[in-house]
Design a protein that fits this description.
Strand content: 15-25%
CATH architecture of the largest domain: Alpha-Beta Barrel
Radius of gyration: 21 Å
Number of strands: 16
Low-confidence stretches: none
Order of helices and strands: EHHHEEEEEEEHEHEHEHHHEHEEEHEH
Shape: globular
Number of helices: 12
CATH class of the largest domain: Alpha Beta
Mean pLDDT: 94
CATH topology of the largest domain: TIM Barrel
Largest sheet: 10 strands, mixed
Distance between the termini: 31 Å
Helix content: 25-40%
Oligomer: single chain
CATH superfamily of the largest domain: Aldolase class I
Bound molecules: S-adenosyl-L-homocysteine
């Protein structure tokens, strides 16, 4: 069975043609799914019953539902737990900014990258999400909040570049004019830094924002918290980001979660500034969400240290911001809700 939600309109046209279904039906169904956010064939008013029956023999529309929703009393951030096929549980976060709604979605259930401070890494990867499901994460949130989602960040659980093909398909699908028509510039893909895949992404010539989780000024410190650093040295990673920025003209964001006593000293800030000084980039400092790792506890740096770190980077000419925290009262961070749910239901 083929999930209609995951198909480009051209693919749908081709498959329909082979089955003697008129071409315009593809545009109609694509519109039902991606403009009207239909959940099933039943929602598609102008599609004849007979055609629906014919389609149902070979095609389906993948299902997803919201199984839990938490709303932050501080800032109205919503955290969702979704259930997709095969009891796959993932989380998404909906944040309201001055400029509209931003949806943070998960590209994998769990994750194999093993970052020590990240709750999504704890049970390893369960499975990749498909392009159709990635769309549905956004659509489920839009249907729930009743307003258009203006930005999508691929920063939920999972490593997007470890699910490359489906993630690229998702970006092209949600960007499609005949569908949801979300500008590529309003999409951010966050990676832990799989260097060769960054070059592959560059070849796709997309206008999305690339965000790279650096979290350290050098390989020694990076290897302590991010196993991916053992395979992809920082020099090559930063070079790839420089190439990406040049090729696409898009400024790269480096994410840097400040962890007390690990990566937050003034020396670290100075070293990071040196490394990044010739790159079209922006650094986003994130106070780490306290996480108890397997054998270590990671705690956030003091506000004083965060401010100092920021000032040093700025003094080196690096554009730096400190991330505003949303939804900290509802476990909105990084895999914490899913982990809790799975533990409770184990
Ligand atoms: N795999 C991708 C995207 C998912 S994680 C990546 O690594 O970028 C999204 C962001 O949350 C990453 O920057 C990640 O390092 C960060 N993150 C994970 N756990 C965190 C924590 N406990 N506190 C703050 N940020 C965290």
């Amino acid at each position: 069975m083929i999930d209609l939600r995951g198909l480009y309109i051209e693919e749908m046209e081709e498959l329909f043609k082979e089955r003697g279904i008129p071409r315009f039906r593809a545009a109609q169904i694509f519109g039902w799914l991606n403009k009207n956010l239909a959940e099933s064939f039943d929602d598609m008013k102008n599609i004849p019953k007979k055609l629906k029956e014919q389609l149902s023999a070979e095609f389906y529309i993948s299902e997803g539902k919201i199984i839990r929703k938490l709303v932050s009393s501080a800032d109205n951030t919503c955290k969702y737990l979704f259930e997709f096929e095969n009891n796959t549980i993932i989380e998404g976060v909906l944040m309201k900014y001055g400029y509209g709604y931003a949806a943070c979605i998960s590209t994998q259930a769990g994750c194999n990258m093993g970052c020590k401070f990240c709750a999504s890494a704890i049970g390893g990867k369960d499975r990749n999400m498909t392009a159709g499901e990635l769309l549905n994460e956004v659509y489920l949130m839009e249907r729930d909040c009743g307003e258009r989602i203006g930005h999508v960040v691929l920063m939920g659980s999972g490593e997007p570049l470890d699910n490359f093909d489906e993630v690229i398909r998702f970006i092209r699908l949600i960007n499609s004019e005949k569908g949801y028509n979300l500008s590529q510039r309003r999409i951010t893909l966050s990676t832990c830094g799989i260097t060769d895949k960054i070059y592959e992404l560059m070849e796709e010539k997309l206008q999305i924002t690339l965000a790279v989780s650096l979290h350290a000024p050098n390989d020694d410190i990076r290897k302590r918290t991010m196993p991916v650093a053992k395979k992809y040295p920082m020099k090559e990673l930063v070079d790839a980001c420089g190439a990406y920025a040049e090729e696409t003209g898009r400024r790269v964001t480096f994410e840097y979660a400040l962890i007390k006593g690990i990566n937050d000293s003034p020396q670290c800030a100075g070293e990071l500034g040196e490394r990044l000084k010739n790159i079209l980039c922006h650094v986003n400092l994130i106070p780490v969400n306290d996480v108890k790792g397997k054998d270590e506890v990671f705690t956030r740096s003091s506000d004083r240290d965060i401010k100092d770190f920021c000032a040093i980077l700025r003094s080196k000419g690096i554009e730096t911001t400190i991330r505003r925290e949303l939804g900290s009262d509802i476990n909105a961070a990084c895999g914490q809700l899913r982990k809790g749910y799975i533990e409770d239901n184990a």
